[in-house]
Amino acid sequence: MPSNADRSEDVFQCQQCGDCCRGYGGTYVTDADIVAIARYLDISRQRLVSRYCAASGKRLLLAQGENGYCAFWKNGLCGIHPVKPRMCREWPYLKSVLVDVENWWAMASCCPGMRTDVPREAVLACVRASRNKAAEE
User: At residue 25, what are phi and psi to the nearest 5 degrees?
Assistant: First the structure.
């Protein structure tokens, strides 16, 4: 890969290891995420929240299993992949990286697909570009 990364693929290539589905503060879900997941699983919103979510202050997180992985991580696959939460779809191009670029290196400590040998400016440019592209879709 080029050292002067200028595309999102230059700073991140998913290794499909599932490490992003494990712990590390949890996966926040929006109301839209909850509705989509409940519809996909054909259960009520209330059942989804009571069975698969945990409160974190005033926000909801997807619950984790005893193994530390998301409650929907089964046999090495995401059980809700077609409707996975926004936070999962955006990984690792999260808004928190734009707030503090050092978050990239903190996240990379648990994600083998994230490059750490690129300049901060390149990381920021790739995160911005990826987020802009996602907003257009």
Answer: 100, -15
